Amino acid sequence: MIDPMKNYDRDYFQRWYRQQSQPRKARERLERKVALAVAMAEYHLDRPLRNVLDIGCGEGAWRKPLRRLRPDVDYLGFDSSEYVVARHGLTRNIRFAHFGDFEVLRPGEPVDLLVCSDVVHYLDARELRRGLSGFGELCRGVAFIDLFCRGDGFSGDTEGFHARPAGWYRKVFSEYGLVACGSHAYLSPAIEGVTAALERFPRDS
């Protein structure tokens, strides 16, 4: 699980998300990331995006740029921060859950885009595997799971960071039916079979 000693409260989000040295650059980078994820999902589904499930959503940073691109998209976020749910739950459609809860938690129909951004490298292996085991049923399109691996250079919160090799993640994601298609995107089992060979990475890569 995520380190229970870490307190994902107002001060945490203020420090790591609102007191950035270059807020405009960070906002523009997020907007490009969201646009990439939307384009990947719509390309592989061959239709406009209808719904998004954001696991470990924090304060719901993805919601606004998603709605800017697709005003009618159905957005639902989950986070384990009690502060986030109390502060933004009603206005941003964010509910409480731990990552591992998605082993059994099914909040609705499978989604076109499942987002799990900047989350899994803070999870222990048991919690990670529990949650991932449900992704195949939760997503009918593309899962966007961006994370950092051992050797990656990044700035930000390193407390509780698990420096795993990239191959470890490839193996674990593949075990749960997620097929890499580039730039942190993974095809769900529902659509893998309709993609061309060079649109996905071999499972044993």
Automatic annotation (TrEMBL):
Short name of one Pfam family: Methyltransf_23
InterPro entries: SAM-dependent_MTases_sf
Gene3D superfamilies linked to this entry: Vaccinia Virus protein VP39 (3.40.50.150)
Domain of life of the native organism: Bacteria
Any one Gene Ontology molecular-function term assigned to this protein's record: methyltransferase activity
GO process annotations (BP): methylation
Keywords, alphabetical: Methyltransferase, Transferase
Record keyword Cell membrane present: no
Protein name, entry field: Class I SAM-dependent methyltransferase
Organism of provenance: Alkalisalibacterium limincola
